[in-house]
DNA sequence: GCAACTTCTGTAATCGTTTACAGACATTAT
DNA sequence: ATAATGTCTGTAAACGATTACAGAAGTTGC
């Protein structure tokens, strides 16, 4: 590979001058600048970012750490993050934690070891409850899950409120025996549980069943199968992420129960398929792309200005009513 | 941050010795090794990977360059790649090209500038047709799209054959006025078109319509709407990726045409929703996770042994028959 | 007792950049 | 004429690791 030394030699100047030209620093004569640029062009020189990162003590990379990129929520968020990173000349390191605190720790270390400029991070429940213990010195924006302690920027939706609204809607439709499927290892699951219970309590009801599950279609499927066989059978199911929701739908279909008459189904996250299945599904749509962009924007701002006060941005989920829960009034 | 110098000082040895201990090199006395490890522990020392990367002239990172991570095909592939990378201590750089050759070029440069150890790469049509012009010196595994020229490892499915089988199936079901929706900017689209035409030709038929589209739901939707209004109207549609397929389904639903009687619909890529929509969709399922793992495995092998002969692995897609095309015999 | 070898450790160069510092020269102010 | 200032460029020291080389000390063989 050609290095800055080769360019310097070819242009008959020192490496310092080459560096100055490339960084667009002042105090370089037009003729020399011209000579250097020509040499760069001729040799096809490209600066080594590893060397630059070492000397400058900071890189143009940022880390994105999510639980599973296959969860449509994180797929969309990561795409938004990547877009903005690209626009600003940053490259993205990607890691999946699988809600596994140990894997999470390893990744956090790895990101630090690579000296990433900043981090966008969706912590496991354990990490979000003991956030300061992580000892993150990196500029970090937390997404999807609130952390209690610790100064850190966050982009979230109000999960309690969103789950409350969704549950409220089910109750208004006349469903009374509600079961909830929640993410097992994230605080998000807990918060949605709180909203669920709150709405029920206000109607003088209690949850019929609540299950805390790892976020896979299969687990949602199995849990729902079990629910449908239990007595008394729930007449509505709330699934708090798109994977559990898909599994629940599959189980209900297999059981041959007519939606929304015999059973109602509602969940979190708008995906390609929620409007296309039969019946279309009522969901809380999170503004995923907005969340990703906002997180990245906040990170960029903090990199610019580390003294900024910490900010917590709460975006609003949108309730999309569809046939899977509409047994009363509208078509 | 604490550096190797701090550790050396704390342990009363030279940096060379610390390095030797950490690299598990021979010729270090047990007592010294012990002292060093204690100092490492006590100071919480972690080697700086940027510095190591510079000195060693190679990093433990690999680049993954796909057209759009939101395409479920690439989501799954990337997850598989990441899993294996993680197991082997590699970190992943992620980039989306959006089938844009210019963005692609920038990313390829960026990956090289970061001195990634290797690359897993899904080239645009332009790039796959002039692969040698990219001048890739990195160990590279190409996925999803065959490249003609150039020595490079590849992991693919036989697209011509897969599209042929799918088309064949439609014809056997008695559909005769077939329209095809193909990806516009990838060779994959072209290959699937060839399989489509071949099957039709063998039945003495010609394609009714063929459209080449960017891979978005919206474009699939709009194209299908147009198709449904054209005369003569197609009686079956083949959509060669999951995004176009989703758009097509949406348009057919809106038009109120009964599937599979009035119109048949088949496509590529098994996703969460293809079995859940009404009616469930006939598709060619690509072994996405296998593709990702295989690609990463081949890359790791090449890193181990650069002299390996170049290999082209062709995996087989699986035809999954579902109601969206079954109007003849089965339920 | 001396050569030859093995074991252990440190010195210093190196990877490819950036940048503090200093020096050369030109211009302007006094 | 001298000082002060501004412009341009090069020398060399970093950044934090790895590693070639050399040298010290200990062991073995004759």
From TrEMBL, chains A, B:
GO MF, one example: DNA-binding transcription factor activity
InterPro entries on file: HTH_LacI, Lambda_DNA-bd_dom_sf, Peripla_BP/Lac1_sug-bd_dom, Peripla_BP_I
The keyword Transcription regulation belongs to this UniProt entry's keyword annotation: yes
UniProt keyword Transcription regulation present: yes
UniProt feature coiled coil, ranges: none
Pfam families attached to this UniProt entry: LacI, Peripla_BP_1
The protein, known as: LacI family transcriptional regulator
Source organism of this protein record: Thermanaerothrix daxensis
């Amino acid at each position: 590979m050609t290095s800055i030394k080769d360019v310097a030699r070819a242009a008959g100047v020192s490496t310092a001058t080459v560096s100055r030209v490339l960084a667009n620093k002042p105090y370089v004569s037009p003729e020399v600048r011209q000579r250097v640029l020509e040499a760069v062009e001729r040799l096809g020189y490209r600066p080594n970012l590893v060397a630059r990162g070492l000397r400058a003590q900071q890189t143009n990379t940022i880390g994105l750490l999510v639980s599973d990129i296959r969860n449509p929520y994180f797929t969309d968020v990561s795409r938004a993050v990547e877009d903005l990173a690209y626009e600003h000349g940053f490259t993205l390191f990607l890691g999946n934690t699988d809600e596994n605190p140990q894997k999470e720790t390893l990744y956090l270390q790895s990101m630090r070891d690579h000296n990433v400029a900043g981090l966008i991070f969706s912590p496991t429940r354990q990490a979000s409850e003991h956030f300061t213990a992580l000892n993150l010195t990196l500029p970090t924006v937390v997404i999807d899950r609130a952390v209690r302690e610790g100064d850190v920027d966050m982009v979230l939706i109000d999960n309690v409120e969103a789950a409350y609204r969704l549950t409220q809607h089910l109750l208004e439709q006349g469903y009374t025996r509600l079961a909830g499927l929640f993410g097992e290892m994230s605080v998000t699951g807990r918060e949605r549980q709180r909203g669920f219970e709150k709405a029920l309590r206000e109607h003088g009801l209690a949850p019929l069943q609540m299950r805390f599950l790892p976020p896979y279609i299969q687990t949602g499927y199995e849990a729902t199968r079990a629910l449908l066989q239990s007595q008394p059978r729930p007449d509505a199911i709330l699934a708090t992420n798109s994977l559990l929701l898909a599994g629940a739908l599959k189980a209900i279909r297999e059981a041959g129960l007519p939606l929304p008459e015999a059973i109602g189904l509602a969940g979190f996250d708008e995906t390609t398929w929620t409007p296309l299945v039969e019946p279309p599904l009522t969901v809380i749509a999170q503004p995923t792309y907005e969340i990703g962009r906002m997180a990245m924007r906040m990170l960029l701002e903090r990199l610019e200005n580390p003294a900024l006060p910490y900010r917590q941005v709460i975006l609003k989920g949108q309730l999309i009513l569809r046939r899977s829960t509409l047994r009363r009034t509208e078509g």
